[in-house]
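Why should sequence recovery work at all? Because a backbone constrains its sequence more than one might expect. Tight turns favour small or flexible residues, buried strands favour hydrophobic ones, and helices have their own preferences. The token representation captures these environments compactly. In the example below, the structure is given first.
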């Protein structure tokens, strides 16, 4: 259905043809008004035809999707297709766990979803890509078929802790050890399955290490934008004050200001909080980051490395999520 005043675009036609989308619910009107939604009789239905509603903010579209078909697009968007099949399966199970958790109302607000269960914004829920777009940008039919196999071979499998779906956080590369969730987010209680674990063999991946040179003035300017009262001398004056258990920056001092590693990472747009500092001169700072992402939960590069060492997807998931069960969805 196309609302009066809405001009159909080429991308909309592609979407209409997607096998994933078996029911097009609505296209929003100009002005970012709330999309109208058709009630679904099958929402969250158990068994072989679990469905969910997916909000795509890029298209201002809400569709009702079959879970397993939707998951192929998630794995395709979230993990390189050339990773080992067992790593792709681990990603599929994590994506399924997250999607079903969203259907159950876990993981925080869905105010941005216009009532849909989940969205395709990777900064909020999890990424998703259409097969057409994947073939244009990321890989071939063979790659897509491998991802489909990863999803099909793990059909209905999820990760639980104490019979409850976990929050299957993941990141690209741990830099050698994953992080305890409490070190990244201000949560009062420990999350038992999101502990720090060693994650060797990630150094061969491009995301492992990055060196970047900053001028002291550039760093001082960024600190001043957030802390106008900061006292910052004309020459380099910064040091790491403490580390977390995984070796990431817990606290770092820049001039008169101390901040958390997470805050420093955001301020400079660094890949991770696992960093080392080098001072080539009195006016410059070389920052080396190890790993990519917040470091909590499953490392994708680590999952691939473990898979290449012979780990199956269940072993991979249990390696990164401490004390969990990998099992079929409870009926
Ligand atoms: Zn979302």
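From this structural description, the recovered sequence reads:
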């Amino acid at each position: 259905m196309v609302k009066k005043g809405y001009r159909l675009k080429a991308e909309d036609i592609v979407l209409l043809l997607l096998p994933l989308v078996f029911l097009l619910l609505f296209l929003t009107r100009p002005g970012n008004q709330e999309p109208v939604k058709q009630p679904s009789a099958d929402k969250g239905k158990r068994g072989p035809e679990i469905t969910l509603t997916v909000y795509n903010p890029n298209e201002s579209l809400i569709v009702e999707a079959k879970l397993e078909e939707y998951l192929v697009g998630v794995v395709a968007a979230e993990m390189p297709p050339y990773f080992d099949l067992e790593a792709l399966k681990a990603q599929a199970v994590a994506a399924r766990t997250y999607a079903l958790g969203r259907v159950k109302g876990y993981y925080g607000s869905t105010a941005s979803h216009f009532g849909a269960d989940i969205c395709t914004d990777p900064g909020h829920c999890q990424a998703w890509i259409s097969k057409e777009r994947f073939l244009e940008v990321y890989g071939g039919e063979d790659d897509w078929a491998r991802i489909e196999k990863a999803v099909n071979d793990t059909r209905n499998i999820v990760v639980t802790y104490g019979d409850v779906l976990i929050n299957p956080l993941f990141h690209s590369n741990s830099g050698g050890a994953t992080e305890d969730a409490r070190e990244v987010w201000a949560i009062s209680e420990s999350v038992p399955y999101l502990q720090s674990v060693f994650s060797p063999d990630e150094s061969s991946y491009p995301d492992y290490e990055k060196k970047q040179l900053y001028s002291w003035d550039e760093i001082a300017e960024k600190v001043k934008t957030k802390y106008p009262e900061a006292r910052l001398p004309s020459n380099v004056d910064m040091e790491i004050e403490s580390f977390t258990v995984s070796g990431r920056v817990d606290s770092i001092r820049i001039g008169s200001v101390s901040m958390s590693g997470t805050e420093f990472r955001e301020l400079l747009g660094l890949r991770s909080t696992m960093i080392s500092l080098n001072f080539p001169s009195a006016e410059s700072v070389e920052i080396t980051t190890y790993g990519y992402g917040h470091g909590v939960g499953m490392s994708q590069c680590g999952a691939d490395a473990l898979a290449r060492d012979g780990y199956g997807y269940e072993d991979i998931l249990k390696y990164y999520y401490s004390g969990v069960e990998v099992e079929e969805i409870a009926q």
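A few observations help interpret the result. The longest strand covers residues 21-27.
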